[in-house]
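Dear U.,

For the methods section draft, I wanted the exact inputs and outputs in one place so we can describe them consistently. I've listed the two proteins in the order they'll appear in the manuscript figures. Please don't edit the token lines directly; just add comments below if something needs changing.

First protein:
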Amino acid sequence: MKTQAIIPSAGSGIRLKSKVLKPFVSIGGKPLIFYTLKAFEKSSKVESVILVVPQDKLTGFKKLVKSFKIKKVKEIVSGGKTRKDSVANGIACLDKDTKMVVVHDGARPAITPKLIDLSVETCKRYRAVIVAVPVKPTIKRVDPGSMEVEATLQRDKLWEAQTPQTFHRDILEKAHREIKDGNPTDDSYLIEQMGLKVKIIKGDYRNIKVTTPEDLIIARGLLCNTK
């Protein structure tokens, strides 16, 4: 089954507090997005990549992809106002014969080709698959007004969602077309809203999303020796 990846990288990255756009932040002398793209370059299950970026940075991303000889990036397209809009722009660029779609955050540079490929293989059977890890801390539900604890949640039932998230194309397209509410932070939420089951495969605690300066320190520790 032909599989393409959509990598949204159009966020502003305000919480990172960087003067440089997040995908271009240096890790070991290379831009953050390089590590993400390299993992997909090495994937045996993903045929090509659609990279979704800020409209005013299209030229910069094209130069980056050319400079690092990333051959699987087939399209570089403008993002939208929200993550959902950006993924939708990527969906619009899929090849006609593509059957499965992998959606992965550009800001998760420690993803491995092995995990990408496992996600794709699992999706052939389950149609909607996300990578996630069991939460480690004790989680409290808190009333935002009084800041008092409402409940202590059962940790053995809580998983932290990551990407990649892999879907049969028809399901993903339908979800983006029909589910209008809110600004979801991942695509599996849209699938869930259609009443469909989403399969979880265990991910990797190192597969962090770089959001804050502290995350960047961890990412550099994980990737600074990557060649």
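Second protein (the one for the lower panel):
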Amino acid sequence: MKKLVLALALFSGVFNVNAQEEEEEQKEGWTTEGNISLLFNQSAFNDEWTGGGTSNLAGNFLFNYDFNYLKDDFTWDSKILLDYGLTKQQGDDFARKTSDRLEFNSIAGKQVQDSNWFYSLFLNFRTQIAKGYNFSEDAETGQTIRTEYTNFLSPAYLQFGPGMLWKKSENFYVNIAPATGRMVFVDKDFTTAPGYVDGDYFGVDADKAMRFEFGTSVSGYAKFNIIENVKMENMLNLYSNYLEDTKNVDIDYTMNMKMKINDYLSTNLIFQAIYDDNAVKGFQIREVFGLGFNYGF
């Protein structure tokens, strides 16, 4: 519960900032917006450097595409997000992923009279695109050993359900879905290994390739300008499973702050926090900061 309160407090602060902005006039019909970014950061040290440090190079690819529809009292907002990054340190045998996320979000709503509330139906699909590894060191040789732990569609999450949508604009909304179905898909090879214990791999039982859950989903989206040429995008997803451990709330929060230099260059800060006790008993945190090359369409 403390984790849920913390996440809501953080996002409500974002909402308060966004609520101060003037409401944008929305156009009827289809509207689209996309952005492609390449983010780089690098450090280098020569042999005479006495302060310590390891030379490294990291890159991150971001693809973000929104396509929205508005007609009278019907609204439909969809987003495709691809985020993939690698880092390579001097002396390492392998490059390592810093991020890997493929996600599709879609929310359709029918307005309740003349208000900001809508009857809604949402769908969310999330997975990764490349293999993920656990890394260890061979005690005898000292060489790095990597063991495959995840893969494309393993895991993959599918959520859907009816609910109520509060929407100020395409850049500011919250959806509450108290009857959400959730399916967790994995590669059966991971759950059929000798000695596998039920639930060890993303909560899926032995010899199974899918786990079904039913619960409450709360999702929010806010994008706004902090100051001139500084834009922040926030996405928050919360989920509680009625069928098991209802007090454990899964949290997925992502912030992308873009500080514009010109039409093609920016400095980007990406922060993500995930809590899912079926994956890891604790928060997963990542942060990426670097120079970005952008193309909007």
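Candidate sentences for the figure legend, describing the second protein: Residues 17-23 have pLDDT under 50 and may be disordered. The chain has two helices and 14 strands.

Thanks,
Y.
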